[in-house]
Write a structure and sequence with these properties.
Layout: H1 2-6, E1 10-12, H2 17-30, H3 35-40, E2 41-43, H4 46-52, E3 55-58, H5 62-72, E4 81-84, E5 89-92, E6 95-98, H6 105-112, E7 118-121, H7 128-132, E8 139-145, H8 147-158, E9 163-169, H9 174-191
Parallel strand pairs: 1-2, 3-4, 4-7, 8-9
Antiparallel strand pairs: 5-6, 7-8
Helix pairs in contact: 5-6
Bound molecules: NADP nicotinamide-adenine-dinucleotide phosphate.
NADP nicotinamide-adenine-dinucleotide phosphate (NAP) is lined by residues 14-15, 19, 59-62, 64, 68, 85-87, 89, 123-124, 126-128, 181.
Amino acid sequence: VRLSKKHEQVILGSRSKEKSERRVQEILTEKGRPQFLSEHLKAGTNQDAASDSEVIIVTVPFESAFETMQNIAGLFHEGQTVISAVAAVTRKDKEFLPIKSERSVSESFKDLLLPTVNIAAAFQTVPSGALYMEIPIDADVLVCCDLSVFSKVSEIVSSIDGLRPLYAGSLALSREVEGLTALLLNIQSRNKIRNPTFKVNSYSV
Ligand SMILES: NC(=O)c1ccc[n+]([C@@H]2O[C@H](COP(=O)([O-])OP(=O)(O)OC[C@H]3O[C@@H](n4cnc5c(N)ncnc54)[C@H](OP(=O)(O)O)[C@@H]3O)[C@@H](O)[C@H]2O)c1
């Protein structure tokens, strides 16, 4: 919804075109059919999103992320930028825990894609509930990617009012970012704080 304010075409990808069409109509109804949404937000399949978009943001559960990317990997082409928002998180009893694996989700995506497709991890610490509400937000988005890819990711993050992109390191650091969501989910449930996020403070001396 927020991306549709600034970009002329945003495709809501899905495994099912019908489901995406239904969800786009629900969103239009929920948001009162503003012109920017009616004109910019389009329904599509994951395949449509992969082949037609300059930037693709992957927002599927950890368990299905690799398989989802495997199914569409062949559709990506040179110069596209894939941003993985997938968090590596599981739940044991009442606690959320990061899933420790050798390769992060975004590194595993890189393995599937052409080397000319850019890949980044970002948005793991931005709660979707807050994004969907019509409220001002103020959050930092920790971005892990090659430094050469950061400006493109930064452009997308900055196109959402209230989000500040921060370069947090190369893709080798993405596992750390993907694990942070577990901390936020515990902060939410244990401290009764709704939609928590991270904001980096600094003090000039
Ligand atoms: N929610 C948040 O606030 C938040 C914040 C930061 C990061 N994340 C991360 O972003 C990702 C998505 O989170 P979410 O809360 O949006 O999850 P979600 O609502 O459970 O799933 C998002 C979409 O993924 C698709 N999906 C579900 N199961 C699938 C499967 N087995 N195979 C392929 N696609 C499947 C579904 O789309 P279709 O049925 O239309 O295909 C679903 O609408 C997760 O990795 C999460 O950790 C979430």
